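Okay, can you check this protein?
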Amino acid sequence: MSIRIGIANDVRLATEVLLRVVEGDTRLSVAWTAIDGAEALRLCSEQPVDLVLMDLKMPNMDGVEATRRIMATCPCPILIVTSTIDGHLDMVYQALGFGALDVTTTPVVGDNRIADSGNALQSKIHGLCKAHGAEPLARRPLPAAVSCQGEVAQAGPSIVLIGASTGGPAVIMGILSTLPANFPAAIVIAQHIDPEFVQGLAEWLGGHSRNPIKLAEAGERISAGSVYVAASDRNLIMSAPDRLDYTDEPKGSFYKPCINALFTSAARQCGKNSAAMLLTGMGSDGAEGLLALKQAGIATVAQDEQSCVVYGMPRAAAALGAAALIATPGDISDFLIHKFIGITQHG
């Protein structure tokens, strides 16, 4: 049985390219095409599909509003496919905040064939469909880092670890925007996102933060008051109490950065004056790592179900008993300010 795909794009050439990419894989089939978001909304309701390839800039109803309405009325996996993000970064991250699973660029045509990204897009479609259909909690042995419950973490600077996937950018932005300048902890973020868009993510978050934001570099020493975003072509880890690095382990993980890789490494390196947050997202990445952090004596928080776009990763964390606190994004902000500054915002 093939994976049914819907395509929403008002540019005829782009639609043709996407049709050729989908039809070039015998495991995929095109169920329908739509010329704007309004038609995509109607077709999602009338002819449900396994995944929608959604453009951003369209007449009548753009991809952001279509994503919002589809996820509110007839939820369906959505991949944003756009020719460029230049000039509309906000639209990309609004769509992700409304529940789009990921974002990628439209493949380029050359010499009557797909010149690039055709295979990459096919792989992304299969990966997203597989991950979206997976059980929320993968029942498998915990990694070695989780089993060292008696191990004492080294002393180090205060660190806030944040892991997120579907719907995460908007939640992270909301949390960062509430934190005062010169926040007395370093913040390290692992967000599942296509590698082509991670620099844009850092820039977009930077426009909403009082603290400087940058992509984490290999071997970089971290400092309080700065925010470090994991590049998404490798897995970010903590190699020392105040140092970041990259690794290709674990092999075979669909998403990079792998949140479990960051969290489990941090459980061995972070001082107990740190905290970790696992936010909205599908699947279970980060749940086992959050448990390792809790066992190491570090404060752990999972986002609550009502505020999640997809209650997958936080659900997995709650099922493992990995979260000491279940909270809304607003409560997470209050928790961080109270823990690291000693101020209670609301009573």
